[in-house]
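Database export, one record per block. Field names are fixed; values are copied verbatim from the stored entry.
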Amino acid sequence: MEDIDIQILDQPIDTKAVEAFVQDDTCGGIVSFVGTVRNQTQKKRVVHLEFESYDAMALKEMRKIAQTILDRWPAKKVSFHHRKGRLMIGEVAVAISVSCPHRAQAFEACEYAIDTLKETVPIWKKEVFEDGEVWVAAHP
């Protein structure tokens, strides 16, 4: 059975499916991260976000991150789903789940997943405001 589930979607993310994929009877820790669209940056009110992706390269990079997690931690399964297109306030932009035998390992692996995704995966975010828009760096 496959231990990696990677998807880039133009429809809403099913966070329950992301988490369900990583269920494993040998794991006592499942950690999930869900990133949603917030209505404000530090300076302006956000109307919506737009995500663009170089899908083939993004999927390859996401798979590389997932494989690194399986190699570096005792993770059993990893799932990443990322949206593209227009997302409104409150919608899920990204969902990641990792299962490991113990919680500390699962937390570390999930944090690595989102941090590395933001640094290396070719998915770009545009913030749209009432009075304009701006492409923002993927890095926190």
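Remark 1: The beta strands are 4-9, 29-36, 46-53, 77-83, 85-88, 92-100, 123-129, 132-136.
Remark 2: Residues 4-127 form a domain with the Aldehyde Oxidoreductase; domain 3 fold (CATH 3.90.1170.40).
End of record.
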